[in-house]
UniProtKB/TrEMBL annotation:
PANTHER family xref list: ARAC-FAMILY TRANSCRIPTIONAL REGULATOR, HTH-TYPE TRANSCRIPTIONAL ACTIVATOR RHAS
Keywords of this entry: DNA-binding, Transcription, Transcription regulation
Protein name (database record): HTH araC/xylS-type domain-containing protein
Database matches in Pfam families: HTH_18
Domain HTH araC/xylS-type positions: 184-282, 300-398
Domain of life, source organism: Bacteria
SMART domains hit by this protein: HTH_ARAC
InterPro entries assigned: Homeodomain-like_sf (IPR009057), HTH-like (IPR037923), HTH_AraC (IPR018060), HTH_AraC-typ_CS (IPR018062)
Length: 406
């Protein structure tokens, strides 16, 4: 009969927690790291230092008081170390995380949390720093000394970290929701009114807000300011119009909101890397210059991708593949951010560009339809009528008549 080996761990509700299930340690990062992912759950508490970390191609700042919560689907890499980063980490199996929720109700609340929160990094306040440092330091000491019932003590520390992270994330999400909604509305407003003399002050007044709030919201969600986004919307429209040979550069510049051709040329070159004249010489199949992207937010990266590829037979499946995601997830992200489905957002962009091309070009309606991604002119006419309230030909006729009457 084999001798029974001593068990190094504790049993809770039929689950055996061992030393390998919950590891606490101190780490120092003094330089960049390679991309890493682990089949575990990790918490990082930054005690000191500063730098930047990239998580699933999104960049986050690291500083004293930063807290990270990473899962197995997070691929992360320290991309910059300004000052040596000292951190205490919890690394645990998913079983331990589920154990820490204990009740069915708390499991449901915990999992619902991840349906809307996809930011793995938070910053604590000065008052919270001492609280969190005490928890992580206590867990580190318990892990090193391993006195009796130390594993229960570690679970207690884990409880406190989870509660702090989820409560903080929920408060941030509620505060940011109104700002995100305002930013989405502002972005769409810029797409409708880019031809006008738009200013930050006027737009803030339009939305009964302040210039600082408008700019801060756009910057947080897109990584760009009001002025940067307006310029890119205008240049994106100009890029579409340059496909029409009969449209001169001066006409396009005026149509998209620039009253000075040199100013238009300067912005065009800054954003695309080419001059408008150079773009006109490039064959349509060779044009790969419309590549500017929003920087910080996945919803707006998806939006920009749609904005760049509206003339192609784009589907939620192709976009999901591009962003290494699922069609359902892409649709959920778009619906949460823009209050419309993926297909509706594609249609929205196509209709905006269709109107611009219709009003600025003498091309046939069938050619405008094709330039906006429609294979059937009947489908294009039907969608245009639904969106704008008139058929393309009638819409152009009414606008032309309106201008003549002014």
């Amino acid at each position: 009969m084999k001798k029974k080996l001593p068990y190094n761990g504790t049993e809770y509700y039929g689950f055996n927690m061992t030393d390998a299930d919950f590891i606490v340690r101190k780490i120092i990062f003094q330089s960049e790291t390679i991309k890493t992912s682990r089949m575990s759950v990790q918490f990082f508490f930054i005690e000191s230092g500063s730098g930047k970390i990239q998580i699933n191609n999104q960049e986050y700042s690291l500083k004293k008081g930063s807290v990270l919560w990473l899962f197995s689907y997070h691929v992360y890499q320290i991309v910059e170390v300004e000052e040596a980063i000292q951190a205490i980490t919890f690394e645990l199996s998913l079983n331990v995380l589920m154990l820490a929720t204990l009740t069915t109700r708390s499991v449901e609340q915990h999992m619902n949390f991840f349906e809307y929160w996809d930011t793995p990094a938070l910053d604590c306040s000065k008052n919270e720093f001492a609280y969190l440092q005490t928890i992580f330091t206590h867990a580190l000491n318990e892990s090193e000394q391993q006195e009796r019932l130390y594993d229960l003590s570690l679970l207690a520390d884990l409880y406190q970290v989870i509660v702090w992270f989820e409560r903080t994330a929920r408060r941030n999400w509620i505060r940011e929701k109104d700002m995100r909604d305002l930013s989405s509305k502002t972005l769409m407003y810029l797409h409708f009114h880019f031809r006008e003399t738009l200013t930050l002050d006027q737009t803030a007044e339009k939305f009964k807000s302040t210039p600082q709030t408008i700019n801060r919201g756009l910057k947080k969600l897109t990584g760009k300011t009001f002025g940067d986004i307006l310029s890119e919307v205008r240049i994106n429209n100009a890029l579409a119009m340059l496909n029409f040979d009969e449209l001169g550069i001066a006409f396009i510049a005026d149509f998209v909101g620039y009253y000075s051709v040199p100013s238009f040329n300067k912005q065009f070159k800054r954003i695309t890397g080419y001059s408008p004249t150079e773009i006109k010489k490039i064959k349509p199949t060779q044009k790969q210059v419309n590549s500017f992207r929003f920087q910080n937010s996945l919803p707006f990266e998806i939006y920009t991708y749609i904005n760049q590829h509206y003339s192609e037979p784009i589907t939620v499946q192709t976009v999901a593949k591009y962003f290494y995601s699922s069609p359902t997830k892409i649709d959920q992200i778009i619906l949460a951010e823009f209050a419309m489905t993926f297909n509706a957002l594609v249609e929205y962009n196509r209709m905006l560009f269709a109107r611009s091309l219709l009003l600025s070009s003498s091309k046939k309606i069938s050619e405008v339809a094709e330039a906006c991604g429609y294979q059937s002119i009947r489908t294009f006419n039907r969608h245009f009528l639904t969106f704008w309230g008139n058929t393309p030909s009638k819409y152009k006729e009414l606008i032309t008549a309106s201008k003549k009457g002014q």
